Structure prediction request, 320 residues.
Amino acid sequence: MDSDSLLPLSQSLQLPVIDFSDQNLTPGTSKWDEVKADVRKALEDYGCFQAFVDKVSNIELDKSVFEAMEELFDLPVKTKQRNVSSKPFHGYLSHDLYQSLGIEEANVAEKVNDFAQLLWPDHGNKSISETMNKFSEQLVELDVMVRRMIMESFGVEKYLDEHLNSTNYLFRMMKYTAPPEDDVEATKLGLRSHTDKNVITILHQYQVDGLEIMTKDEKWIRVRPSQHSFIIMVGDSLCALLNGRLHSPYHRVMMAKKTRYSTAMFSIPNPGVIIDSPEELVDQEHPRLFKPFEYIDFLNFFHSEAGRRVESTLHAFCAV
Ligand SMILES: O=C(O)CCC(=O)C(=O)O
Ligand SMILES: [Fe+2]
Prediction:
């Protein structure tokens, strides 16, 4: 299947929206169990959902993050190219209309400051690093809640602390520049169809839509931007950890006439961590699907010639 081909775009289908705005959403409460059941159902059906987080402060923060990104991407290319990493897909990337910048270990304030210091060596741009710090904190809180719900829901909460301690966070900011109006040849595809390789991704779009997510029966759902919600998505590493109980959905970005900004917080397995399903998730009905692997080997395979050509990176890399 060529997932970028012209599959129908569903007009009626929408991602499930789950309310995370309740301040009393704490483990052990009936509200928690209710939301947890909804999360499990949405992830089984779609591999993703929209988390509604209605905080008044969000509007302000949303605007600050958006403005920070405009300022960041307006920097000269040479400056942006200082954002390098030894790992693939972690530093500054640019091709066609797409550019992105990455902050590794974005949950650690000093790392965010280092990023700003690298791009603005004179003053370190305190206001941008404060904005990104605040935003990262909010996203990490959401990531931890969702992962706790998932582990509890599959009866493997005894591994929760070990699991949470085995990951790090990468924050990425994306800009998709609008194609010139007179350029009819310009690509409509901002980012080709793929599954994410990490554990969980939390996506956010700024005013301009474009993100499309594929359903199990191969229809594209277009996700509308909202200041009050985040898109939570299963990555291949979580799919492998759960012995395939949740799937990582294909998604892509289609371009319209406007320049589009988006952000993503990725939870990523730490170096040295072996991704392997706990025995509780393997039985006769659910035979082991994947061989244990290290995230960086998986990512390097995805980055290789051979890895780029395969339909499912996870199956090609480690199916039993
Ligand atoms: O820009 C977006 O909305 C999606 C980005 C994405 O899928 C990715 O970076 O993996
Ligand atoms: Fe993605």
